[in-house]
C-alpha cells in the first residue's frame, strides 16, 4: 500500500492492522527509507541561509505553506486546536514543541498552526529526497540532521541560532510514523532530543494529536483530529544539563500520555507479536 493512501483515502477495515515486534519498528516502508543510510547532505549545505533573497523567498513560501495548512487541517481533517493560549507564557523567548508522530502530512502542517510564530522542524536527510516536495522542505523550516562531525556542529549551531531568534523548534521524539496511533511510544533516543531546551534554558511544550469519529461520512471512516498543546515546562535551575534532559523528557512523555487518553476512536489497530528467533 502506498504511503499517501494511508492518509488520503479510507482503508478497508481488515487492512487497518499493523503487527509489530518493537515500538521502534517502522510500519511505513518507502524506497527512500530503505536507502536512508546512503543519504548525504549536499556539499557545503547551509542550515541557515546567508543570502537575503533566499531568506525572503523562504519567508514568503512559509506564509503560503501555512495558508494552505489552514485549509488542509481545518477542512480535510476537521482539526480543532486546544491550549494555544498557553504559548503566551513563552512570550519573548524561543521554545521547543514535542509532538506524537501519527500522520506525516498533518505532522508537517499541524505545528505551524499550533505555534504562534515560525517553526523549524528537525527532519531526516532522507526527506530531502521525497519527490516533488523534498527540495522545498528547508525553505519552509526543515532542519535535516547532519551525519558528519562538521554537519553535526553546523546543525547544532543552526538550532541554537533559531532558538535565540525566538523561533520554535519542532521535534517528533517517537521517531517513526505510526499511522493514527492512539498510544504514546517510548522515545527511541531517550532524552537526547531534549538537550536543545536544556542547554539554552528554554521552555518546552507538547502537541498531542488525538483521533475521533466524524459526524459526517464524506471521507468514509477516516477520523477527525483534536490537537492539544500543553506546557510550558521549564528546565530546573537546580539541575545539571544532563539532569534537565531527563527531567524534560519525563515531563513531555507524561503530558503526551495524559492527552492521548482523550482519543475516542481507534482507526488503526496495533498488535504486538513475539520477536522472531
Task: Give the CATH level 1 class.
Answer: Alpha Beta
Order of strands, main sheet, comes to: 2-8-7-3-6-4-5
- Poorly predicted runs are none
Beta content comes to 15-25%
CATH architecture: 3-Layer(aba) Sandwich
Please estimate the helix content. Answer: 25-40%
Secondary-structure map:
Blueprint: H1 5-8, E1 17-20, H2 31-34, H3 52-76, E2 80-82, E3 95-99, H4 106-114, E4 119-123, E5 142-144, H5 149-164, E6 168-171, H6 195-200, E7 204-212, E8 224-233, H7 241-260, E9 269-272
Parallel strand pairs: 1-9, 2-8, 3-6, 3-7, 4-5, 4-6
Antiparallel strand pairs: 7-8
Helix pairs in contact: 3-4
Structure write-up:
By secondary structure, the chain is an alpha/beta fold. It has one domain: Glycerol-3-phosphate (1)-acyltransferase. The protein contains seven helices and nine strands. It has a seven-stranded mixed β-sheet with strand order 2-8-7-3-6-4-5, with helices on both faces. A two-stranded parallel sheet has the order 1-9. The radius of gyration is 19 Å and the shape is globular. The two termini are 27 Å apart.
